[in-house]
Recover the amino acids of this structure.
């Protein structure tokens, strides 16, 4: 089971939430839940914009494995 | 008989051949052939090209040619002007030549001029054939159909450390480093000339093995002049790009016709700077999508909250005015009840009052003083009122009370009144 969500999934879900709260009448309770979720997704997306460390580590590891 | 045999020296034969050739091939000829090897000697500047004619892969004729340093320089310069390429192996050329024979060096073609437009036409023809071949194989548009990841974060760059284009590319990416982070690995390759096809293809194959580690590949060149870009029209390289498992973006920076490599790439950005801007713009686009979402969420939340607040306030207002009204009504009822109570109470009291006055009067009438006033009197014996004569006997001392004062009397024996 993989709980990690990719940034492209995150932005898609985020925009779905946005169009939902933009176009539908949403109660305050639901809204606060959606906003909570949206802020998590925004965090994931923003991280994708300015972090590559983990991936680079993975790449370098794999490239180095071949040399041995 | 041996003595009858005529024996020639090698030089006799050579001289003879030379004279035959010089006699029979005294003019100049236009010949077309393919350069199998250029054999250019940079030190002397002379060229000794091996020229061939092929049927398929089969060589059906081969001759050596000579191009003297001075001629080569002029011819090649003109050739580059027209074709954008330096004379090189694999090219088909149309040239004007004389035929010479040298006793030591043998038969040779003495190239006097080369017609560049022939080669250009040939190159265009070859290019067209390569395009058609790639289309027939169904791979011409293959790389274009790949999906570019939203964020090209891991870049495989085919270029060379010393390339100006590569540095332009890096400079632009570095300018956005604080906002958008990506990572690239350089795969160094020759970017133009004879050896470029082999070198570029080898590096692309290296990347292909590790394609899952990269989001896209970029071929970047710039600052190396526009000669020797024919390699990008080569079938092997073009095919490698067309078939590449991740999107390839080209920025090989030249102003002439688009090469096949650029045509089959995912996108041809022409200059290295534009490749960098493409990468950055993907990030910026993504960023603006986040910003847009953020702004909708925040305005929408504020709207909802403020409209909710208004609703609440309205409800509270309703409740207040409603309850005030209800209270008012209740109070009115209460007041009217109170009033009613008061009225009926006072009426009751009034009535009671009247009764009391009457009773009072009645009681007054019954008071002994009132009776005495009317002329009645009360007879007492030892302080007790007498109601019958039988209670008395002669000699009793009785008191008669009048309204004013009283009389003391002594009872007398009864005279016979009845006898009268």
């Amino acid at each position: 089971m993989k709980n990690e969500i990719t940034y492209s999934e995150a932005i898609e879900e985020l925009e779905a939430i946005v169009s939902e709260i933009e176009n539908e009448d949403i109660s305050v309770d639901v809204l606060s839940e959606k906003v909570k979720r949206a802020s998590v997704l925004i965090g994931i997306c923003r991280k994708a914009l300015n972090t590559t460390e983990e991936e680079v580590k993975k790449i370098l590891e794999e490239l180095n494995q071949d040399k041995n | 008989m041996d003595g009858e045999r005529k024996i020639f020296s090698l030089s006799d034969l050579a001289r003879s051949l030379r004279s035959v050739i010089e006699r029979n091939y005294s003019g100049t000829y236009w010949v077309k052939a393919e350069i199998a090897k250029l054999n250019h000697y940079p030190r002397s500047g002379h060229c000794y090209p091996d020229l061939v004619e092929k049927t398929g892969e089969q060589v059906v004729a081969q001759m050596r040619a000579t191009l003297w340093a001075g001629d080569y320089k002029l011819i090649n310069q003109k050739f580059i002007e027209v074709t954008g390429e330096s004379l090189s192996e694999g090219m088909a050329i149309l040239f004007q030549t004389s035929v010479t024979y040298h006793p030591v060096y043998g038969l040779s073609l003495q190239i006097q001029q080369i017609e560049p437009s022939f080669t250009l036409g040939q190159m265009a023809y070859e290019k067209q054939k390569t395009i058609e071949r790639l289309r027939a194989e169904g791979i011409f548009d293959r790389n274009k159909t790949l999906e570019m990841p939203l964020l090209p974060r891991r870049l495989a760059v085919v270029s060379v450390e010393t390339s100006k284009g590569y540095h332009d590319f890096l400079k632009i990416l570095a300018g956005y480093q604080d906002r958008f982070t990506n990572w690239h690995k350089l795969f160094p390759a020759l970017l133009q000339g004879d050896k470029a096809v082999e070198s570029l293809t080898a590096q692309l194959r290296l990347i292909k093995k590790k394609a899952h580690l990269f989001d896209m590949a970029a071929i970047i060149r710039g600052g190396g002049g526009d000669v020797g870009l024919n390699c990008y029209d080569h079938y092997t390289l073009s095919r490698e790009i067309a078939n590449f498992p991740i999107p390839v973006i080209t920025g090989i920076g030249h102003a002439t016709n688009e090469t096949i490599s650029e045509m089959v790439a995912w996108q041809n950005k022409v200059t290295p700077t534009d490749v960098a801007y493409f990468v950055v713009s993907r990030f910026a686009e993504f960023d603006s999508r986040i910003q847009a979402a953020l702004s909708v969420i925040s305005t929408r939340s504020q709207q909802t909250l403020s409209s909710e607040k208004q609703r609440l306030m309205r409800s509270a207002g309703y409740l207040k005015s409603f309850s005030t009204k209800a209270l008012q009504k209740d109070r009115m009822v209460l007041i009217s009840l109170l009033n009613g109570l008061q009225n009926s109470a006072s009426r009751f009291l009034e009535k009671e009052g009247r009764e009391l006055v009457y009773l009072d009067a009645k009681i007054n009438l019954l008071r002994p003083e009132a009776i005495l006033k009317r002329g009645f009197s009360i007879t007492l014996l030892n302080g007790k009122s007498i109601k019958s004569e039988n209670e008395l006997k002669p000699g009793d001392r009785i008191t008669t009370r009048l309204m004013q004062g009283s009389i003391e009397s002594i009872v007398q024996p009864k005279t016979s009144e009845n006898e009268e």
About this structure: The first strand of chain B starts at residue 29 and ends at 37.
